[in-house]
Amino acid sequence: MAENAKRVLVLGAYGFIGAEVVRTLRAAGMRVTGLGRSTAQAARVLPDVPFKQGDLLQLLRPEGWAPLLQGADAVVNCAGVLQDMAPGELEAVHHTAIAALGTACAERGIAVVQISAAGAGPDAGTEFMRSKGRGDAALRATGAPLRILKPGLVIGQNAYGGTGLLRMLAAVPWVQPVALADAPVQCIGMADLAAAVVAALRGDLPQGTYDLVEDQPHSLEDVLAETRSWLGYVPASLVLRIPGWLLPPVAACADALGRLGWRSPLRSTAMAEIRSGVRGDPAPHRAAMGQGIAPLQTIYKSLSSGRAHRLDARMALLMPAAVTVLSLFWLASGLIGLWQIEAAVAVLTDAGWGSLPAKASVAFWSLADIALGLAILWRPWAARACLGMVAVSLIYLAAATAVTPQMWADPLGPLVKVLPGLMLALITHQLLQER
To answer: Is the domain of 222 the same as that of 365?
Structure first.
């Protein structure tokens, strides 16, 4: 790589958009450094890319950016959140931190490429779009060299957020469920988005604001049909249009899960964005670059699809059910153990245990079951809870084999039935791995 290559700091480097932007910039000969909250996540997604740890929730003043900007010629902001997970998160990540970044970059003559969103602005219908618009306006006010790119629905080889939801819905067998079927959607392929970032950094794309969208919108139903076809599924026998009155309670449930750390694509902000449509004006970008954005059909033709994509879509569809089943199973196991504690104690006393140790053991392991059933519902603990379920299941099997081996021959199969639950916990642990 040439010593005089442009040095670029990419915010949100290991995210859905950020990771592809990093790879494309490196392929274009630029020297890229990533920035994000998790060095461990960065090492998994971008193992050979230099990385700086930084949390936008803490970088709210220009001086906080100074050490992170050392040696940078340009910054690409790919960071963002869909909805507040904590009070003020949207405002901090999309506006306050980005205004501070813009000021710091203006003082140093560092160029900024801002990945915003089609439709972002002060009069948008959701706080997500309004906060993005405030960040865009704040960057303009700093006077830093600036290109604002506002993509539509981004379609890439991998899937996350809205793209992941499309694939999950397309993976439903036999029927095609769809809500807001007529909502207009304009897409952009990840390759075109990354190419626009390269053009911006090279100066081929003049300073300004550009909607990165295909020329013609599609209905959401048509986008789902294209996604289903690309994945290789047979066309649905029936299109099941979800009535509008069901969406608010679904969104309310997804928002409640958000407070437990689950970033569901069915949250109220996502629903509101789909309802208002994903639209933009492709003319300024076409005029600046002399060509438009590839349409949806061309995007999908450029992406490979195979068994791994179909399996990923089906497993993503099953993951919420797997978590729910495990939670209910372990909660029921623990609660029944406490409710029927005397019957459970009798099994141990018949094997020669004393009454007090038997009762203490049953109570302890029943509470452990309840704790695991609750822990899997808290997203930051969910994967570890699955491993805990595996460990406790193995302890149960080993202890029962040593103390009451006759239970293996019980016609109701209480020990044999532990094995499927153990395997489901292992599978769910893998389903919970992100990116």
So the answer is: no
